[in-house]
Amino acid sequence: MPSNTFYRLSEEKKKKLTDAAIEEFSSVSYSEASINTIIAKAEISRGSFYMYFEDKEDLFKYLLSQHKEIFDQITRESFEANNGDLFEGFKMLFRKVNDYLHQPDNQKFLKQVLLNMNSKQEDFIIPHRPHLHQKEHFTEILKLVNIKNLNVESEDDLIAALDIIMPITVHTLVMVVMHELPNDEANRIYLQKLKLLKEGIERREVC
Q: Rounded to an integer, what distance in angstroms lies between the CA atom of residue 21 and that of residue 135?
């Protein structure tokens, strides 16, 4: 991650460097991205760059961390605003992230990320990406969800539910970026999936 020297730069200089990096990583794949191009646009020397970041991967991970912080913030805000309601929380989370992804600069950058991302980078950027039903990957969201209105008997049941909901959420958001799915259409598709999940797919006969 960035050195203290980077953090001591003026906001204007930090923005100029990160804007140059975002432009480069948005235009070409990670492997093709050039430090020389970035420093030329940022108008800094190569020596200065290495005073701020260890290498290209360090800079790229920093840019990803900026998005991850926003995703984490949206998650907290969405569940807190809905008193921990699982489905309403995910609805708000999806709307907010969907709006964020439709900002042109974000969409262009994250499309390149998704096209060229390795598994290590995927683990880092995708919020609460499920990993084989492991509690530690849901630690934060488990604290936010109110289970009173859910048909769960244990934390393990809640983790199982999150293992179902999160892939649906992530997959639909990936569609937004990769296929440039319109905002309204993305919301419609996601709400349809969530409704089926909440109410069930099998028709039940009324006695």
A: 35
